[in-house]
Records
---
Amino acid sequence: LEKRFNRRVHMMVKAANARLGPHQPRLTFDVAKRMLKGVVASSLARAQERAAEQDCPVEIFAFVSMSNHVHIVVRTARKNLADFMGYFKARVAETINYLTGR
């Protein structure tokens, strides 16, 4: 599984770097791997922080990150779940788009 993940990361880095201009900094394998492994947790933390700043706290009880989807168990006192999830998914998408050069 780790070998397959590493191959995919190498292909992603190669494709992302091919789309960059001549003076843009290149993405490295190590940076891409770190970003991918932490993208869900860091995006979730940022979304939770944003909700708290808006005085609409979201309590996260558990999350599982699968290869193609995520399960999250949360509780919120207000009806801000759609906003919270939208912000979370946008942060994940931004990181993946950056890594894929899109």
Note: The CA atoms of residues 16 and 97 lie 9 Å apart.
---
Amino acid sequence: MKASFEIHPIQAKALKVLLFNPCARFSQLNEDKIPTDQFNFHLKSLINANLIARQNRKYCLTNKGKELAGRLDVEKEVIERQAKISLA
């Protein structure tokens, strides 16, 4: 995953669902009833970025996905920037 990877609002909503559920089905992730082909595109983008994985007909967060979803502002559904800390 590149540092400049942008999360689409549809992808953020799917990450939000998986943040509170260990694994979810396609229909549970697609709460807003977005057309299947469009939603599938966003899920594949998350899979290619190694943020979610498909296991036993369900989608689950990977370790990388858990780290990113942990920084998700659940009300605004955007990823919050983290401050860089350094020592001199």
Note: Strands lie at 23-24, 52-55, 58-61, 72-73, 78-79.
---
Amino acid sequence: NRAIQHTYEPGSTIKPLLVATAWQLGKGGPERMINCPRRFKVPGRRKPVVDSHTVGLVPETQVLVESSNSGAVQITLRMNHDQIRQTLADFGLGRRTGIPLPAEARGDTRSLRKMNSAHVAAVAQGYAVLVTPLQMALAYGALANGGTLLRPRLVRAIRTREGEVLESTPRRSVARPLSSEVARGPLRGALARVVNGPGRCTAPKAKSKRYMIAGKTGTTKKIVKGKYHEREVVASFSGFAPAEAPRLAFTVVVWGPSTKKK
């Protein structure tokens, strides 16, 4: 069951969790301007942080819309290490969800125990931590419902043919990583623009004619024989719909599509 047993590095789908928390902590803001160069040098990191294009001077919401690595890294670096660790823990990353299915993987956030600026830059881009698809779906469920992380249920209730409830599984909250003001306000709008535009956005092909989808793309290099492969990737999309009144949160992961041109 890959949804709960396989782990992967989430890539840019982690950016909304960190950026929104920085907003909530007063370390930035949706309309605060930030300069996102094509290449951004992080002290102590050998390679610069690189974007696919120059985003330039934009409001911080645009960092999510255009998936700017340099912008996400700058915003995340404003938080201290404990705040970053707590953010990912509050969103349920690196621990089992408690879903009543066998062999659920925990994920792995042990690399967060000892961090420096270079490591924070990797985490801000969705590297150096391992998650399951279910963990990311639940995290985006928290973004969708106004900021509450819920424990997953397989069955809401067992009823008789006449409708009498024989057994029920109550809704159970696990954590409250975001305020409703942040989750339902500027963050939701930014994630809706990721799919629906206007302007340059990263997921226009996820657009639906039936309802508005909100979400975020993620791409990381696939680890092959202990090393990152230059062409093989793990591609994902986490989101929720309808954006204005969410009923569904989800994560889609594709292991190993090739970026090699045919």
Note: The CA atoms of residues 194 and 202 lie 6 Å apart.
